[in-house]
Write a structure and sequence with these properties.
Helices cover 26% and strands 40% of the residues. The chain is of the alpha+beta class. The chain starts with a strand and ends with a helix.
């Protein structure tokens, strides 16, 4: 699947200090894909983004578009809140 990163998502990546290579890694090989509200999905992985601490990196995607559009990106330490158990 190919992805287009929105201007808002790029701004949030910069503001939240999340490098492009981290976002690309999550998009290409997510540990989970979770349905979100509307037509959105959260591609997410637990990873260290260079801080020495593990965060859940969530990339919110509208995959009904072609190419799929990255809406926003964020990291959180609240893994249990978003992680879905099988």
């Amino acid at each position: 699947m190919t992805f287009e990163i929105s201007r808002h998502a790029r701004e949030e990546m910069e503001r939240r200090a999340i490098p492009l290579n981290i976002v690309e890694t999550v998009l290409q090989n997510p540990q989970q894909i979770v349905d979100e509200y509307g037509n959105k999905k959260a591609f997410q992985s637990i990873m260290d983004i260079g801080t020495g601490k593990d965060y859940l990196v969530r990339v919110i995607v509208n995959d009904t578009l072609d190419p799929a559009r990255v809406i926003t990106v964020y990291k959180t330490s609240k893994v249990k809140k978003y992680w879905r158990q099988p």
